[in-house]
Amino acid sequence: ILFLPDRFLTLRTNLCARFEMTVKIVNLTAFILAIGLSGLQAQETKKLRIAILDIKAGSSITQPEAETITGFLTTDMINSKKFHIIDRQNISKVLKEQGISQLGCTDSACEVQVGKLLAANKILTGKVSKFGDNYALNVFLTDVEKGTQDVADKVSSSTLEGLESSSLQLVEKLICRIEGGCKETSLLKNE
């Protein structure tokens, strides 16, 4: 009976030490998770908000074909997970409320106005045309704050349907240009 309090104290001391260690581990885990999640949130907030206006139809292209190309481009931009793409339905809704037609918005001043209405950082516009035996897709990224086109690129294909796979290449080129990780070509060196 005399040894019971000592055993009890030893058992109590061991349990308290284990409990304190468990609390420290839980706190450390929570701290590490909080740091990791705040890093993810920071990455999310750094994504550019891009509004993609309907690609315009050039020579030998119908507007529905151009809208299909817009769909390809939008899908590839979303799937890149590099940007916040403003939903096309929201774009149409805001433009309709303001009495602005996407097809009638042909200059950078109008694009900037649309970008501000949509709270976008950038507006992506473009044109698809037939040139000789090839189809060309040219796109331009306008900075809403500066009002300047700061990125442009193009792809081509021997068929209109081929622009679907070329759209992915174009998005990769745009990401490279935006992030500044492109290899310099002779054209880029002269800029």
Short recap of the structure:
With 191 residues, this protein is an alpha/beta fold. The protein is built from six helices and six strands, in the order αββαβααβββαα.
Secondary-structure topology with pairs:
Elements: H1 4-46, E1 48-52, E2 56-57, H2 63-79, E3 83-86, H3 88-98, H4 108-117, E4 122-131, E5 134-143, E6 148-157, H5 163-179, H6 186-189
Helix pairs in contact: 2-5
Feature tags:
single chain, 191 residues, alpha/beta, 53% helix, disordered C terminus
Describe the structure.
The protein has six helices and six strands, in the order αββαβααβββαα. Strands 1, 2, 3, 4, 5 and 6 form a six-stranded mixed sheet that branches. Residues 40-44 and 186-191 have low confidence and may be disordered. The protein is an alpha/beta fold and 191 residues long. Helix 2 packs across helix 5.
Number of strands: 6
- Helical proportion, percent range: 40-55%
Q: How large is the radius of gyration?
A: 27 Å
Low-confidence stretches: 40-44, 186-191
